[in-house]
């Protein structure tokens, strides 16, 4: 929906809200609509998606290929399965008019809960026509069952069920939307993007698409072979000299068709399966083109994944080589083993944090001043309330202190400040230790840690010769006075 149409519709809704529309004589029309994001609506949408991924994608082609002689007879299992699937499609299109519609315009979105507008919007979407096409075979099958033997049951009549495969376009649209949200920088959160990597997800979608196409083309090969045999022509089944494919059971014929389809789509055929008619040649040509696209993409994704893994392995190798050089240099000058281990640990943690991506401090430092204070206020309030000397302060003071805090994450052994450092340059007058430990040293000898209250520092100068962390530290600082969490 364009921006102009969006604004026009919003004004129209505001105008209609002031008028009393009354109620309809039809009880169904007066029922409240389901919100499209409520639990029931989401459950049904998920159930229909799974139904399309299984029944529509796999059972419909198989039913068309093997239910040629029994289509329309209630004693046939394929007919009963077709009727059950048709009922699901019918319920789906009815529920489509009982749910609200979500309109989007760029980053704007709103839910339409007006019944007339929701029905009109649903009927004007591509999804409605796909739902309607899926119901057409069900209507025909009900008529065929009701009229009995008076309806001619030619084997090609069941091909009408193939129109249900059009619902796979809806599945493709949903998958495209999920994939787009996973790769774009949208403001809305995406569960798929948060829990799955893009490349494995894309690979899984391609594998599923290949399975759907292989099954569909295999069933079409069986259908074409049956059609050609009815007219006395040779088929791809007759090209096999070492077995009689036409005389095999349904499962064996489907397996041979799948084998033929895979060898064609991957262009690795052994010349034992050959098309024998122009119709089969056309179908095989389409199969080869689809196979080139799908399996070519799979090869490209595999190569890209290998390239990234090689780059990551090379980066790890370079890091280990650098640490080895550091260790050799320290050993050359007879540095004690304990100090060598501390140096290597420091650089190892520093590199690991750099590879992990953005940390808490990176996020906060890039924010403007107002947003930085707002975020820090909510992040540090809990830490301030657990600090015994500050817990008795008023909430307004907590908010004021928290708004000036800045998160900093330091690796093991990092100096927080040293004698002579400017307190204001170090952050102010208060450090809140969230995780890790801090040690105060004088002449390289520990003098104490986590002491409260500390001795009053001289103006703008820090007390002590130095303080450093014994473990990776996460702290929110205002300056060189420490306060830790109370023991739980």
From TrEMBL:
The chain crosses the membrane at residues 86-107, 119-143, 201-224, 254-271, 283-306. The keyword Oxidoreductase does not apply. Residues 51-313 form the Ion transport domain. It is a multi-pass membrane protein. Residues 464-477 have a biased composition (Basic and acidic residues). One of its GO terms (molecular function) is voltage-gated potassium channel activity. SUPFAM superfamilies: cAMP-binding domain-like, Voltage-gated potassium channels. Residues 448-488 are annotated as: Disordered. It is found in: Membrane. One of its GO terms (cellular component) is monoatomic ion channel complex. InterPro entries: cNMP-bd_dom_sf, Ion_trans_dom, KAT/AKT, RmlC-like_jellyroll. Keywords: Ion channel, Ion transport, Membrane, Potassium, Potassium channel, Potassium transport, Transmembrane, Transmembrane helix, Transport, Voltage-gated channel. Pfam families: Ion_trans (PF00520). This is Ion transport domain-containing protein.
């Amino acid at each position: 929906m364009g921006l102009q149409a969006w604004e026009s519709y919003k004004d129209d809704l505001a105008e209609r809200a002031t008028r009393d529309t009354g109620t309809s004589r039809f009880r169904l029309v007066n029922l409240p609509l389901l919100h499209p994001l409520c639990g029931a609506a989401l459950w049904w949408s998920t159930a229909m998606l799974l139904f399309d991924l299984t029944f529509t994608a796999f059972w419909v082609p198989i039913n068309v290929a093997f239910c040629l002689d029994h289509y329309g007879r209630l004693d046939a299992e394929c007919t009963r399965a077709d009727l059950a699937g048709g009922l699901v499609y019918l319920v789906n299109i009815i529920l489509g008019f009982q749910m609200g519609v979500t309109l989007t315009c760029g980053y704007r979105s709103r839910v339409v809960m007006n019944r007339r507008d929701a029905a009109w919007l649903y009927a004007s979407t591509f999804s409605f026509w796909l739902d309607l096409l899926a119901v057409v075979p069900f209507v025909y099958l009900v008529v065929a069952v009701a009229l009995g033997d008076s309806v001619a049951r030619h084997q090609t009549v069941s091909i009408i069920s193939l129109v249900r495969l059009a619902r796979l376009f809806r599945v493709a649209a949903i998958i495209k939307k999920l994939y787009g949200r996973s790769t774009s920088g949208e403001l809305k959160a995406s569960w798929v993007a948060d829990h799955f990597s893009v490349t494995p997800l894309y690979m899984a979608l391609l594998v599923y698409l290949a399975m759907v196409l292989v099954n569909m083309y295999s069933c079409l090969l069986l259908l074409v072979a049956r059609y050609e045999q009815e007219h006395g022509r040779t088929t791809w089944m007759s090209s096999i000299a070492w077995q009689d494919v036409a005389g095999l059971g349904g499962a064996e014929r489907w397996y041979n068709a799948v084998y033929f389809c895979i060898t064609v789509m991957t262009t690795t055929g052994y010349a034992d399966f050959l098309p024998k008619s122009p119709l089969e040649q056309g179908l095989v040509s389409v199969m080869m083109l689809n196979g080139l696209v799908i399996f070519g993409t799979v090869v490209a994704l595999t190569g890209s994944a290998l390239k990234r893994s090689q780059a990551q392995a090379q980066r790890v190798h370079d890091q280990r080589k650098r640490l080895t050089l550091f260790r050799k240099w320290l050993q050359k000058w007879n540095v004690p083993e304990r100090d060598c281990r501390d140096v290597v640990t420091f650089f190892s943690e520093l590199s690991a944090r750099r590879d992990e991506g953005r940390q808490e401090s990176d996020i906060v430092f890039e924010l403007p001043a107002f947003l930085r204070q707002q975020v820090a206020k909510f992040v540090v309030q809990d830490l301030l309330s657990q600090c015994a000397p500050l817990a008795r302060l008023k909430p307004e003071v907590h908010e004021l202190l928290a708004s000036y805090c800045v998160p900093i994450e330091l690796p093991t052994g990092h100096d927080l400040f040293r004698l002579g450092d400017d307190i204001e340059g170090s952050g102010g007058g208060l450090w809140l230790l969230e995780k890790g430990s801090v040690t105060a040293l004088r002449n390289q000898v520990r003098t104490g840690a986590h002491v409260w209250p500390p001795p009053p520092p001289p103006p703008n100068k820090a007390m002590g010769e130095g303080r450093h962390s014994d473990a990776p530290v996460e702290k929110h600082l205002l300056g060189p006075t420490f306060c830790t969490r109370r023991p739980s």
